[in-house]
Amino acid sequence: MNDFDDTSEKTRVTDSVAIKPTESEQDVLVQIYPPGPNMGRKHVLTGRFITLGRDPSSDIVVGSDSVSRRHARLSREPGGDRLITDLQSTNGSYVNEQQIIAEVLTNGDQVKIGDTIFKYLVGSDVETAYHEEIYKMTIIDGLTQAFNKRYFLEALEREMSRAQRYGRPLSILMFDIDHFKRVNDTSGHLAGDHVLQALGRLISTRARREEIFARYGGEEFVILLPETPNDGAMELAEQLRKRVASYTFVFEGEEIPITVSIGVATVSTEDITENEFVRRVDEKLYLAKAEGRNCVRG
Description:
- This protein has 298 residues and is α+β, with helices and mostly antiparallel strands.
- Helix content is 30%, strand content 29%.
- The strands form 4 sheets. The chain has a 6-stranded antiparallel β-sheet with strand order 2-1-11-10-7-8, covered by helices on one side. It has a 5-stranded mixed β-sheet with strand order 4-3-5-6-9, with no helix packed on it.
- A hairpin with an 8-residue loop joins strand 1 and strand 2.
- Helix 3 packs across helix 4.
- The longest helix is centred in the middle third of the chain and has 18 residues.
- The protein is globular, with a radius of gyration of 21 Å.
- It starts with 25 loop residues before the first strand and ends with a strand.
């Protein structure tokens, strides 16, 4: 992923008269991925036609090699809808992870061009929605929509204190995608992004409210399981391993076989640090990978 310079994006607001969905509404694009100086940047959509691309003449310039020089166009339709149209870009344009030729945007849609993801916000209180999105960026990974590492570590500190105080078990699953570098090398980084997104969605549908599912870094994920003993954590890990192995990951018509290796560790009243707990589960993950991958070790 590329972190962009502050000068790599701009929004032109002087080339056309501002047009709003209604008298009381406005619409914006907010960059939510990748991390870097432009994450959180808000582009107010004030023109009837707005171009997105790598070319400096674009209204919204995205300085990434995965973005075409003329990548996509936003237009205001006669009925007031905001339409996004792909301009025959090399890597395609996506709305909510689905490749599109042209698509009407609705509030909350995610727009992906190359490796850059925007969130579309429209309504009478866009400013409030924008600040809520900024807060989410401090705890949510923009690509996978799982919690981020920072949020996980804060939750781990809190839950370890509770486990030690009340003598209740606390477990961690740590897993990563087997041979993920091979996916990037053979199918491309955008395919790798798609796999991470799909995996995040697949695991999120299984995680319960009290569990913390987070992207720990790269292709590595963790699940924090309060009041879960080791045998329960091992059972869940095996269920997840099978679920991933049986799922069909497809990017641009190409099936990509994916498996995960999972490590499991559990503590209760033990007086250890958060770092030591994470080191233990990391060792179990390493063992799973060393013993052939696509397995669980605890």
